[in-house]
Design brief:
There is one protein chain. The strands form 8 sheets. The protein has a 4-stranded mixed β-sheet with strand order 10-11-17-14. It has a 3-stranded mixed β-sheet with strand order 1-9-8. It has a two-stranded antiparallel sheet with strand order 2-7. The protein starts with a helix and ends in a 6-residue tail after the last strand. Strand 4 and strand 5 form a beta hairpin. The protein is elongated, with a radius of gyration of 38 Å. It is α+β, with helices and mostly antiparallel strands and 365 residues long. 19% of the residues lie in helices and 30% in strands.
Length: 365
Amino acid sequence: PDKFKDITHAYDVLYDEEKRQMYDRYGEDGIKEGGAAGGGGGMDLFDLLSGRRPGGGQPKQKRTKDVLFSLKVTLEDIYKGKTAKMAVTRHRICTTCEGAGGDKAHVKTCNKCQGRGMRTQTISLGPGMYQQSTGPCDACKAEGKIIPEQYKCKTCKGETTKKEKKVLEVEVPKGAPDRHRITFFGEADEIPGYMAGDVVIELDVQEHSVFKRKGADLMMNKSVTLLEALAGFKFSMEHLDGKKVLISSSPAEIVSPGSKKTVKELGLPLFNANYTHGNLFITFEVLFPPSGSIKAEDLAKLEDIFKAYKRESMDIDSKDLETFYTIDYCTSHHNVHQKKAGGAYDEDDEDEGHAGGQRVQCANQ
């Protein structure tokens, strides 16, 4: 029923010249407001027909759709800022015929739709059964007007618009967030009687090989040896602006495995506040010497150095205890062959002992 009402309403608007003009100028709101005014509502129909809005404002002109483009940028681009060029193709009003499609003196009303741009056709569905359907007129392409072929514009071939390519210069601001949008007003398609929509450029920040971004802060991982973790570390790296910087631990600072350190103001410029920067966060992995690589006499020296940090094992009386030795962990060590009650395997355990459907073989079994 609602759909039938919509169709009936559209048919009524199309076949009422006054309502059709009102719709062309003000859209559906104009029809509703005009109808309310005619019934004694709060809007004067004369205001609508004279081009005025309630309160003396001007009518809002219809616009074509905005067009969204994606621009890939690197983290370096976000750090330094850049100007990128993007070519866009859009339809613009033909300057030769000024959007008329041809010689204005020879523009005629379409006799197929009587200038309405829509046609109602009756379709036979069977003996005594018919259906009416309303759709855009194919003779005039729903424009309600036709121009004889010999009078059509030679530039746009009667289309009223022509394709035009334009190169836009996109200013990527420093510190811009991912998915930040830059708008070029009025650069989208043009259609006679409509304002041109906007071209919107959305920044797509690509992943970086070293840094991950969180707002204006940067995060990275760094591996250090056990000696560096205990005695201090220094390393140089190339930052996003191409300059090399030296990162150093503080005096007497010890790095624990998985610990996170902060380097102040070595992150990205703050968006719209480029005079200050975010921070750099470094998560450290400590590389321990391989098993068996430290000699017994060196271990004795280490015990002497760290004698203040007493080991738990020193207080254990192991004389009457059976000793078990640890080995390197491997996923294949999981017991996946133990059946549950009822004979069903534990599927979760089965999956845990596999990677991609294949059992992982360890170097040392």
